[in-house]
Automatic annotation (TrEMBL):
One GO CC term, this protein: nucleus
Protein name, entry field: NAD-dependent protein deacetylase
PANTHER family linked: NAD-DEPENDENT PROTEIN DEACETYLASE SIRTUIN-2, NAD-DEPENDENT PROTEIN DEACYLASE SIRTUIN-5, MITOCHONDRIAL-RELATED
Gene: sirt2
One GO molecular-function entry: zinc ion binding
Function, in words: NAD-dependent protein deacetylase.
Residue numbers spanned by region Disordered: 339-375
Main subcellular location of this protein, as a coarse class: nucleus
Residues that bind NAD(+): 77-81, 87-89, 159-162, 254-255, 278-280, 315
Pfam families: SIR2
């Protein structure tokens, strides 16, 4: 993000403002940025009504107007449910009820970093049980990819660890994986920290091996954030730069209950429209805190509502409806079709290599040997 001038250079001192007035086009975005920064961090600034109507149609007209170029998507487990990805760590999903066989001191221990370092077996057994058969992104994932292709996406903040954003074509810089990712793993030893990829980890998980670093024999852990671990540093640094500049926040598939992720909705400027696509309303301001002037939660329904839109549907349906209003529907459907076909043919190839690999293992031949026709 070379366009981001360091904040120290943006100090609104009289001197700086006088030095730059000639180039208005350059100055204005910076002033906007400062205004938004103050309004979001200090609760100052005016609340301008940007949408002509608090509906999906109103949001679509705003996007089409060309006035919004810094869309931030905040996404949660709900965008991956139609891909068959289980909600891996949230309590209350039925998952914790299945953990009795592991003799855990308490269910959450399986995702507790200290417990994991002593007893990694339950976590890896569960990872094997829950490992998705296929990594196939949803319509919603590809909608976010389309925002990127059209130059409208500032960044996607995801709570998911399923790597589907990457499979859909978002790159590391487009993404903040707030709760980490299975995409990479690292040796837990502070002196080593050797990185391993998803294929390596998958192989260990499915052969019931506890993954050990081949350099130092320490445990290797997927880069998902366990309880007791900090969120990635990038989450905090990018957040400070991104949210004051955001001109449309799209929140999808999350009930906004996990902090600090949920609090991000309050970090955009007071004028920034916020669209929620979810099966139920979420993130609404606590009435008491709202009265005291804190919060920054969503307001869809009150007399004072002026910028928050709730579209109650699945994430896929909501994205299709929005794409339709934007005139992108055919393009989105084509993208999904093509990408899914690509993944299917890739899966077929991998499966045939795997079955050959398994056959080859028994007679000590290498799994990478030239595939022979067997089926
Ligand atoms: Zn190591």
């Amino acid at each position: 993000f070379s366009d981001i001038t360091p904040l120290c250079k943006l100090s609104p001192s009289h001197k700086n403002v006088q030095r730059m007035p000639l180039d208005q086009s350059r100055l204005e975005p910076q002033v906007d940025f400062l205004r938004n920064l103050f309004s979001s961090t200090l609760g100052l600034g005016s609340a301008e009504k940007v949408l002509d109507e608090l509906t999906l149609e109103g949001v679509a007209r705003y996007i089409k107007s060309g006035k919004c170029k810094n869309i931030i998507c905040m996404v949660g487990a709900g965008i991956s449910t139609s891909a068959g990805i289980p909600d891996f760590r949230s309590p209350g999903t039925g998952l914790y009820a299945n953990l009795q066989k592991y003799n855990l001191p308490y269910p959450e221990a399986i995702f507790q970093i200290d417990y994991f370092k002593q007893h990694p077996e339950p976590f890896f057994a569960l990872a094997k049980e829950l490992y998705p058969g296929q990594f196939k992104p949803t319509i919603c994932h590809y909608f976010i990819k389309m925002l990127k292709e059209k130059g409208l996406l500032r960044r996607c903040y995801s709570q998911n660890i399923d790597t589907l954003e990457r499979v859909a074509g978002l790159e590391g810089d487009d993404l903040i994986e707030a709760h980490g990712t299975f995409y990479t793993s690292h040796c837990v030893s502070f002196c080593c920290r050797k990185e391993y990829n998803l294929d390596w980890m998958k192989e260990k998980i499915f052969s019931d091996d506890i993954p050990k670093c081949d350099k130092c024999q320490s445990l290797v852990k997927p880069d998902i954030v366990f309880f007791g671990e900090n969120l990635p540093v990038r989450f905090f640094t990018a957040m400070k730069m991104d949210f004051p500049r955001c001109d449309l926040l799209i929140v999808m598939g999350t009930s906004l209950q996990v902090q600090p992720f949920a609090g991000l909705v309050g970090r955009v400027s007071k004028s920034c429209p916020r669209l929620l696509i979810n099966m139920e309303k979420a993130g609404q301001a606590d009435p008491l805190l709202g009265m005291l002037g804190f919060g920054g939660g969503m307001d869809f329904d009150s007399d004072k509502a002026y910028r928050d839109v709730a579209h109650i549907s699945t994430c896929d349906d909501g994205c299709l409806a929005l794409a339709d209003l934007l005139g992108w529907k055919a393009e989105l459907e084509e993208l999904v079709k093509q990408e899914h076909a690509k993944i299917d043919s890739q899966d077929k190839k991998e499966k045939s290599v795997e079955s050959k690999g398994a056959a080859a293992k028994s007679d000590t031949a290498s799994a990478s040997a030239e595939p022979k026709a067997e089926e």
